[in-house]
Model the fold of this input.
Amino acid sequence: MSVKVVIGSQWGDEGKGKIVDLLSEDVDVVVRYQGGANAGHTIFVNGKKFVLHLIPSGIVREKILCIIGNGVVLDPSAFFEELEILKENKINTDNRIIILPNTHLVLPFHKIIDQLNEMGTGKIGTTGRGIGPAYTDKYLRLGIRIIDLYNDDYIHSILQRNIELKNILAKHYYKIDEFSIEIIKNYLFEIRGKIEQFVSKDSTIVSKMIDEGKKILLEGAQGALLDIDHGTYPYVTSSNPTIGGALTGSGISTKQISEIIGVAKAYCTRVGEGPFPTELKNKLGEKIRNSGNEFGATTGRPRRCGWLDLPALKYSAQINGFDSIAITKLDVLSELDEIKICTGYKLNGELINHFPVDTPTLMKVEPVYETFKGWKNSIQGIRDYEDLPAEAKKYLEFIEDYLSIKIKIISTGFERNDTIII
Ligand code: GDP
Ligand code: IMO
Ligand code: MG
Done:
């Protein structure tokens, strides 16, 4: 059985797209298991850039079948837009994309509500892609799944209840025009014909493909520290990027997983609000942002940058059970005289070495650092571990020792082949 799971281990944007693309050389199927068009997964192949939001990153390799799992919330407009861009880029998508029937939809009103929520107090800094409101409807049992698009009675009754509730908020809380059931219905009727060709009748195909011996790669979006259960709540997304989400979001069993790979940047970034103990709110942070081109792949927002946080990474490894780590963007640190790694925190003068799950506490901790000498040489594109400067090796070995997990992939540039595989 070969079922690998690629999971972001920080606050997203770790370079999952690049790692999924790299590993998909050797797989038959790539499955996205959660999140929605809030994700932006970037791949560079021979200088050509692709940014995937909903469609699995396996799509850029011709032979791969791509499945959108039931854990995803799918915005049909974003999906068709993405398909169009792929076609413009000469990627043949015919018969290569399947959507599981129990995948929930993101509808236009979800995006409006997401954006309105961000204008009030308690801003999360969401991507505005309707993710939270769509998952809210799923859990309220008021959502519409892809399969429900073909059931007029269901659409009618669920919209009646859903929109009745939304319109109370629209009128009295958001103070906007009421939503029209007719307009939403027309939108659903318009997309259902177009999307039908992608919809699988069977929600268990991923599990069956594994049993048939297909090599599968499960692609997570966001990262463990944005997980709704395990992340820095409430500054999180609304799904489970962590390992449990990979199972429920694709309909497979824990027994079917063979390897769990955590992707970590050689430093840390975060977009939106929320605690970030090692954040560098200074010139150095800006320097890393510019060297690493740390601007959101979905919203273009500047990413907050800071040092690698090992207690956070260890926490992530603990809850996901990483078998190995892929370290990305090591090349970005090349210009620095010295590089720091957070190995613990101080709280009211006392040392703690775990990642506090209590957000107000996490906001207060002061990082404790180990300082490393920089290598001050470009390592961009290095493909052999032995060619790395001694200082870079020391940095990586320190991470491995702290986590007691092997680093099996080191990314030294954004191009597919700028990679060391150990
Ligand atoms: P994802 O959401 O985890 O897939 O990551 P993003 O695509 O949002 O952000 C990662 C960014 O870093 C993208 O622009 C990638 O092209 C880029 N990238 C990935 N790996 C490397 C690397 O090793 N070095 C450099 N310089 N850039 C990288
Ligand atoms: P990928 O898959 C980085 C962040 C948002 C915000 C919080 C909630 O590219 O790593 P949401 O729109 O999900 O309700 O926003 O989560 N966020 C991401 N940050 N990478 C992502 O995806 C993200 N998806 C959501 O910035 O802080
Ligand atoms: Mg991203």
